[in-house]
Amino acid sequence: MAEIVRFAPSPTGNIHIGNARTALINWLVAVKSGGEFILRYDDTDAERSRQEYADGIAVDLDWLGIKPHRVEKQSARMASYDEVAQKLKDMGRLYPCYETADELDRKRKRQRARGLPPVYDRAALNLTDEQKTAFEAEGRKPHWRFLLDQETVSWVDGVRGEQSIECDSVSDPVLIRGDGTYLYTLPSVIDDIDMGVTMVIRGDDHVTNTAVQIQLFQLLAGKVPNFAHHNLLTSATGEGLSKRLGSLSLQSMRQDGYEALAVAIFAVIIGTSEPVQPLADMQALADLFALDKVSRNASKFDMADLGPLNARLLHEKSFDEVSTRLEADQVGGDEAFWLAIRGNIEKLGDAKEWWNIVEQGLPADAVSKSDDDADFYATAKSLLPAEPWDNTTWKVWTTAVKGETGRKGKGLFMPLRVALTGRGHGPELAAFLPILGYQRTLDRLS
Q1: Residue in 27, 36, 37 with CA at minimum distance from that of residue 64
Q2: Which CATH number is 407's domain given?
C-alpha cells in the first residue's frame, strides 16, 4: 500500500537528530511504499514560530536527502480549525472550562491525597449559564476540553503491536487554550483527515495521545489512520533531546562536515535490530529499514560513534563521487591522491590537510625530525630513485636504504614518514610517494 505520511515540526528552533529520526523514518516508509511525504509546519504558535527556522528545517531535510511531495503550513489553515471546533461545540463534544491553572493544580493535589488518579472531574459540564457569565465577568476566558467517550481504545501499533488505553483514566484533553489558540491535537487530526494521511509515524512519547486522536478521527471522519510509535533517541548521557542541545542539531552536524548519509544511517539504524553499517544511498537504507525492526527501548546517540561510520562511508567512495566537493574545497588532487588518502580521513574536509602537506609543505605542528637520524636521511637521500615513480618506487627505495643502513621495521619507515609528511601516521607511503614526487621528497630529506 502506498502510504501517505507526514512530518510536522514546529519552526521554533533548529531540528535535532531526534526530530531527524522521525522525519527519516516517515520518508523511508513513503519511499519504500511508493507513497507520499508531507512536510507540515506546526506553526500555530505565532509568538515562537520563525520563518528562519522553517527555512532551516527545509535546508536540513534537503541535506539529508528528504524531498517532500507537499509542503503545508498550519498557520494557513486556521479557518478549517475554527470550522471544526464550532462543529464540536455544537455537538456538545467541546465544552468550556473556567478553572485557573492554580485551581486545577490544587484539585489534582486533593485527588492524589485521596488516592485517586488526577483526572479532570468534568465539573465544568455542570456549570449553569449564570455561573459562566459570572466567570466571564471576572475576566476569565474559557479553555475548551474534548468530552471523551469513556471507553477502551485499542489499535495495532506498527512498532509496539497491540495497544489499548482506558479513556476513563484520562482527563478530557484541552484542545483550545483560554487565549483561543489551538493545542497540537485538534489541528493535527484535522490536517491528517484533509490531507489523506494513512499512517502516523512519530515518537513513542505520543502514545498516550493516540486514544484521544483516534476518538477525534472516528467522530470527524469515521476512518482512522494506522499508527506507529518509534523509540526515542537520547544524548550519550541518557538525557532527552531538545532544541537547546545545539550540538545535536542537524545544522551543527552539517557545518562540522559530517556526511548526510552517515547521519541518516546512524539516526535510523540505532535502536533497531540491524547493525550500523555503511550503505550506498538512501534507497539502500529504505530497503534495509522496516518498522518491525525498531526496538521499544530508547537508544543513545553518541557523536563519538558517528565519526567512525562517517569515515567508513568515505573510505568506500570513488573519486568521481567526491571530485566536485574536493574541488570546491580547493583540493586539487586527482584520483591517485584520493585513493591514497581516503583511508586516513574521518571527514571529507580532512583531505584538505593532506593536500596542503603535498602542495605547501609540512604542517606547522609537524613532528620534528630527530637530529640522531641525520646520517640516515643523508643515506636515504642519496639512494632516492630517479623518476618516473609509481607504486613500486617506495619498496625499491626502502629496500635499498635497509640494505645500506641495516634499519628495518619502525626504525626504517617512521623517520621517512616523519620527514615526508610531518605526521607519525597517515596514508600508505607506497601510494603517497608518487604524489609528492622526486623534488619535494628530496627537499624534505634535507
Answers
A1: 27
A2: 1.10.10.350
The answer, yes or no, to whether residue 305 has pLDDT greater than 70, is yes
Does 438 reside within a domain? yes
Final residue in a domain of this structure, among 303, 328, 360: 360
CB-side neighbour CA atoms (13 Å) of 74: 29
Q: Which of 355, 434, 354, 426 is nearest to 391 (CA)?
A: 434
With 70 as the cut, is the pLDDT of residue 231 above it?
yes
| Residue whose cell numbers read 483526572 | 119
Q: What is the pLDDT of residue 420?
A: 98
Sheet (strand 94-97) strand order: 94-97, 143-146, 174-176
* 428 shares a domain with 382: yes
Q: Are 162 and 154 in contact (CB under 8 A)?
A: yes
Q: Are 351 and 333 in contact (CB under 8 A)?
A: yes
pTM over 0.85: yes
The domain total for the chain is 2
Domain holding 376, by residue range, is: 371-445
Instruction: Specify if 107 maps to a domain.
Output: no
pLDDT at 247: 62
243 is in an annotated binding site: yes
The x, y and z cell numbers of residue 150, run together, are 469513556
- Residue-wise pLDDT for 358-394, tens only, equals 999 999 999 999 999 999 999 999 999 999 999 999 9
- Name the nearest CA neighbour of 168 among 105, 119, 125: 119
CB atoms < 10 A from the CB of 293, how many? 14
